[in-house]
Amino acid sequence: MKIGIIGSGNMGRSLGILWAEQKHEIFFGSRTTEKGQAVAESAGNNTQGGTNDEAAAFGDVLLYTIRGVNPSEVLTSINVLDGKIMIDCNNYEIPENFAYPAIEYSLAEKLASEVPQARIVKAFNTMAQEVFELAPQPLKEYNVSVFVAGDDEDARKTVMSLAADIGFAPVDCGELRFARLLEGLGDFIRYLIIGQKLGSYTTISVETLPEAEKQHLGGR
User: Residue 194: which of 63, 98, 54, 106 has the closest Cα?
Assistant: First the structure.
């Protein structure tokens, strides 16, 4: 697939490199042509680099890594986003003492309201960037879950396929409103990583017990 990275920081660079290794075409976007090109040069094959506008025009799927910023402030025109799949991987800022307020309106829903013609999908917000260092192997062995929410079923399936390509176990979480739960889960993971000092490789794997095991447990 053709994937545009809007905001080529650590998260965008890491995912872009992994997808490029799986033969997807990647365009790293940044505020300046020079920075985007520098990221692409360090990333290797199947990559290009330039501005965020160029990345948005290039990709059929876009990874939007710029937390809480309206795309109209990043791109010359948001019309280029019409019909495209936009992956939102962001969480809110960490408050003092991890005193998180209840999430009544997720960042993903905010993004969807700002670019209503794009197909917004929440994903990749429940692990630190360091987890991507393990992809695709030995990541597959750990069955690390990527939780995917979005109103467009085909868009969800596309993002789930991209997650599986790089070694994750995708979990379909349904409509975009459930991004509120996923962002809360992302907050909890960051609390474990930083507040409880469990380290950057802390994440979640969803396991389903085999039917025989469930019957055994139920018979106790």
Answer: 98
